[in-house]
Amino acid sequence: MGSQSSGWFASFALEMYLARIILAYGKFMSPEEFGRLVRAERRQQKLRQGELAALAGVGNRFLSDLENGKPTVELGRALQVLGMLGLTMSVRPRDWRDVE
């Protein structure tokens, strides 16, 4: 029984950790929300747009478009920016409570 309860606790601890990450960074369902998340993280890390663009290997205009929620930005380059900020993106099924 001891190993079962410790397995349950480890699973619970992981869920709580992931919930904190989701609450800290939030979910997004629009390019505008995604852009706000990227901008907030860049500012949190005290980076200027030009600095992050250079580090991520994208142009200043691309980063500006991304942060402003342009819906046609290239996904691969957006992922480069996330990676440079130390963020990852995940996809999960939508909960029925998420439907507006």
User: β content, as a range?
Assistant: under 5%
Radius of gyration: 17 Å
H/E element sequence: HHHHH
Largest beta sheet, briefly?
none
Total number of helical segments? 5
What does this structure look like?
The protein has 100 residues and is mainly α. The chain has a single domain, classed as 434 Repressor (Amino-terminal Domain). 65% of the residues lie in helices and 0% in strands. It has five helices and no strands. The protein has helices at 2-25, 31-44, 49-56, 60-67, 75-85. Helix 3 packs across helix 4 and helix 3 (49-56) packs across helix 5 (75-85). The longest helix is centred in the N-terminal third of the chain and has 24 residues, at 2-25. The radius of gyration is 17 Å and the shape is globular. Mean pLDDT is 80; it is low at 18-23.
Q: What's this, in brief?
A:
65% of the residues lie in helices and 0% in strands. It is mainly alpha-helical.
Relevant terms:
100 residues, mainly alpha, 434 Repressor (Amino-terminal Domain), 5 helices, 0% strand
Walk me through the topology:
Blueprint: H1 2-25, H2 31-44, H3 49-56, H4 60-67, H5 75-85
Helix pairs in contact: 3-4, 3-5
